[in-house]
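User: Teach me something about this protein's shape.
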Amino acid sequence: DGIWVCSEGPMSKIPEREEADYRACMLGLRDYVNKNGFKNVVLGLSGGIDSAICAALAVDALGEERLRTVMMPYRYTSKDSLKDAEDCARALGCRYDIVPISEPVEGFRHALTQLFEGTQEGITEENLQSRARGTILMAISNKFGSMVVTTGNKSEMSVGYATLYGDMNG
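Assistant: First, the predicted structure itself:
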């Protein structure tokens, strides 16, 4: 009849703060990915809690078929981290790839050997790992039309504990 009527019905339960935050993150991710025309998303799965939560959020927001996870081990990556990452991807039902970063990191180190000669090794060399991972994720993004999802957390961001062009990508 074209008349809108407001009638009494069941009250919706207001979600708790954590659930409301999670739902907002899901909505934001889904909306951003879809409105910007990305086919899917990709993220680095380290075996840690931050990347596991980001992966779960992506699956909840987009579905398992739209998430690709990538474990990028280096010589310091533990067997436990490898197993945890694989178990996480399997539990979520999403794609899981392994792309070792030893060759790219060692390539950068070799290229910089002469320039860095006589200097003490430190954070610069450590950041090469993060930047190699970021470059690999961006290459996957470019090749397959995926959006990179960052796995940094609020605490890391608040104190600046992140590597520009590395784990901040996404």
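Now, about its shape. The chain has one domain: 17-159. The two ends are 49 Å apart (CA to CA). If you'd like, I can walk through any region in more detail.
User: That's plenty for now, thanks!
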